[in-house]
Structures are given as structure tokens and as C-alpha cells.
Amino acid sequence: MNHKELAELIFPNVKSVEYYENMYPKRNLKEGAYVTRYAPSPTGYLHIGGLLNTVIERKVTKQTGGVFFLRIEDTDQKREIEGATTAMINSLKDFGVEFDEGMTDDNNWKGEYGPYKQSLRKEIYQAYAKSLIEQKMAYPCFCTADDLAEIREKQEAAKLRTGYYGVWAKCRDLGLDEMEKRIKAGVPYIIRLKSPGREDRKIKHHDVIKGNVDFPENDQDVVIIKSDGLPTYHFAHAVDDHLMGTNLVIRGDEWLSSIPLHLQLFQVLGFKAPKYAHIAPIMKNDNGGKRKLSKRKDPEAAASYYKEEGIPPEAVDEYLLNIANSNFEQWRRANKFASIDEFDFQLNKMGVSGALFDMVKLLDISKIVISKYDAQKVYDESIKWAEEFDKDLKKLLEKDKEYTLKVLGIERGNEKPRKDIAKWSDVRYNIEYMYDEEFLAKDIEYEFQKINDIDELKQIVKLYVEKYFDIDDDKQTWFDKMKDLAEEMGYAREVKLFKAEPEKYKAHVGDVSTVIRIALTGRTNTPDMHEIMQVLGKESVEKRLQRFIQKVK
Ligand code: GLU
Description:
By secondary structure, the chain is α/β, with parallel strands linked by helices.
């Protein structure tokens, strides 16, 4: 028996490598265009790090006029969950991540390089494995789990590197006839690479993010086809990314140490290797140390968390770009209203070590993103969120749509829009006091600041309703009247007057207007009070102020 016959015995019914090379022709790309892929296993869980990966991949391909595709890596069939691919695609779509090619749901795909799901490509991997066997670069291995355990024990006892390599690779030199005999006898086997590498030699790799890195060559005879006939991740990576024309692999840096093996596989298979960019994981402060954001411990590790909280995907994407390129923030300051698509993202400016996740920062970004929305958009997005997560809020928003739009429109669309909403789950708190039915029905615990004498408080509010309040006042008149009110009650009409001679006044106009604000809304902090009064209307303002006078204690 020769190697060709051995290959034929193992894979009798597969097509030739040439067949697939012709079936998937080289892509016609313009100079500098990147073809990248997102290649998750179908667990149905989208980690924020995975989202970062896709946001970057999308950006890089868009910027270079390339192709971004989705490949499902399901060769580990135990992990498959029905519907998981569709769920993953939908979550990504929520964040604006869409693919040019690849799976479109659990079973269908678009694009000329499919199937884009590894379990459907079994014969393709086998064709390449067959060709490697023919060329004496792969072989069947009959070692059982016990054999492998024994090898490991011996290696450990002798304080040697563990693994299936060199003299330890028992089946490497088995002899063709012996192989044939065992196969024909039905002894189970897998296919291993016959590694041409040597541990005492180094390879140089230039990573787009990590820069130059050296590694010892791979000398392990790794498994390429498992006993179920499916490939291992490593082998499928090489075959797929070759046939699918990937020229830039962007992935988590847990794969960096596999580089010697991956480059070796590309070389042995006669493929041109892609460029690699290995992204550091997103980190979190924990007990004085740093650790990776964890699926198990941190709810914010899941992309679904942001949807549940009602943080707009746009804000999350923007935050991720912030993590990815430190010059993003500066760009944003100079281009306040530009779409993030206009930002010139640079893969090689990504940090070598992992960025710290900062929720406060994300929420700040989100506040700014939402502050740019008009009332209608805030309304629509809040309803969409409330529909799923807060039915009562939905009712409140829909009860009087016109009125709600006015409430949401307070301090919006101007130079310095309100920034009190970071997520849709904040909306209720920020608008509920504007509805008489809610507000007047509630027993309010007023919290006072500087002025807290009950009689004084009542008197300020009383004087305001009786003498100064007029719903038709424009903002300036309204404000002047607030000053008059302050003066009449013995407070400084300007803050600076108070600062110059504090002993002369009880406090200043700001403290007086805070009293009115509290009486009106129950809050010390609200958007512009004049606008609030305009939206509430005369009757509601009077009712609120009167109630305060009667009820405050
Ligand atoms: N399926 C691998 C994973 O789950 C993909 C790694 C890669 O992008 O090459 O991480």
C-alpha cells in the first residue's frame, strides 16, 4: 500500500482539492480591501467582547470596501443549540452589525463561498486532509485515551513537555501496511498532522495589533480530523479562511498562542496566510486587581444586558470604538454630530493590553447620544423598550401622546440639550412628575436644600402664586420675576451680590427658585423650569403650588 492508496482507503468518496479550488475562485477585490469574518460557535450568547470584535470588523471592511461575513463554527457538535445562530444574528443586528455574506439564520446563507456553517462542509475538510495524507503530511492515529494518558504520564515523570510530538508520536511511523490492517479491522482512529516543525526553531509573526512576536515552531502532531469525521477548529480555520478568501483575521488574543500552528497549517496546505489582528479582552477592576469581563460573574458582559437596560445600541457601539481607538474621543469632540461611520478607525492603534470597562463612561456617552435625539425619537425608542420591559411605562407614554411629546421635548433641540436620560429605563423617573394624575396622587416627601423653614417655604410659594406667577411670561420676564420674588423675601437677587455681602441676605435667588422647583415637581433637579411650567400649563402649576402650601410639613 502507498500513501495515495491509504488516503483513498480513509476517504473513498471525497472530491479533489482542485474541485474546491475551482468552485471557490479568488475574490475580485480592489487594492487594500479587507475580507474579514466573525466566526462564533453557536452558543446563542453574545459577549460584549464579541460585539467589539464585530464592530471593529465591520468598520475595517467598510473603510476598505471589503467583505465581512459570518461563519458558524459548529464542529464541536455537543454545543449546538437550536435557534442559536438566528438569535446571534438578531442580537448583532440590534447593534447595527450586519454581514455582507454568511449565515442568515440557522440553516440559510447568502454569498458565493458557502456553506458558511462548518458542519455542512465536512467533505471539503476531508478533501484537504486526504491530500495531506497523500503527501505524507498527515496520518491516521489509533491511540486510545489510555495510550495518550500513558504518554503524558511518562512525559511528566521525565519532566518533559507534554503532547503528541517527535518520538512520542507513536502512530507517526506505524508503517502503511499496519495502518491498512487496523483500518480494515475497524480500529477507531483520527487524523493527525505530521508536523514539520521543530521546537528549537523560532518563527516570527507580525501581528497587526500586538506587533512583532516570536514563537517556537509548532512540533505537535495535532488532530485535524476527529473521530466523527469533522475537523478540529484549527484545521477548519485554515481551510475555510483560505477558500473564503479571508485576508485579515480579527479575533480574541486567546488565539495568539495558536499562531505557530495556524501558520504551519497554511504553509503545509500551500495556502497564503491571512494577516492576523489579536484583540485584548475587555477587563474589569475587581478587588484591587484586574480580570476579564466574565460571562458568569458580570451581567454587563452580555450584549443582551444593554438591550434590557435600554441603552441605545448606538451608544454601546460608540463606547466600543472609544475603547478601541483612544483618539476617538478627540474626534468626537471635534465632530459632535457626525456618524461614527465617518471616524477613521485604525486597527494598529488598538491597545496591546485590555481596556478597562467603564460603565460610568458608557452612560455618559449614552446621555450625549440620547440628548441629540428629538422628542419623537425618544418617544419611539422608549415605547419600543417599554413594550418589552416595562408595560406600565408604555401605558404612561401612550395615555396622552401629544402631551408626552411635549414633556420629552423640554430642553431638546437647542444648543445645550437635556442630558438626564442615559437609558430608556431612566425615562419613567425623568418624566413621571409631569403627569398630574401621578404627581398629585402621590404623597410627596419634599427634600429641601438651603431654605427649610416651613413657614418661610410656604410664604415664598404663596407670594409667588399670588403676585408673580403668570403663565404668559416669556423666559426673561419669568426670570426677572423670580429675582423680584427673592428680593421681596429678603434674598439676594443675584448670586454675586450674595457672595459679596453674605451677611446682608438670607440666601440668594437660586435658593428661592429651588423652592419653587421643589414645590412644582418634588425634585431639586429638573430641566428648565420655565419650559416645565409652559408644558404643565396654568392650571396644573397652580394646583401643584397650592397643594404644596397646604401639605408641606
Ligand atoms: N470559533 C472561534 C471562537 O469561538 C473563532 C476564533 C477565530 O475567529 O478564529 O472563538
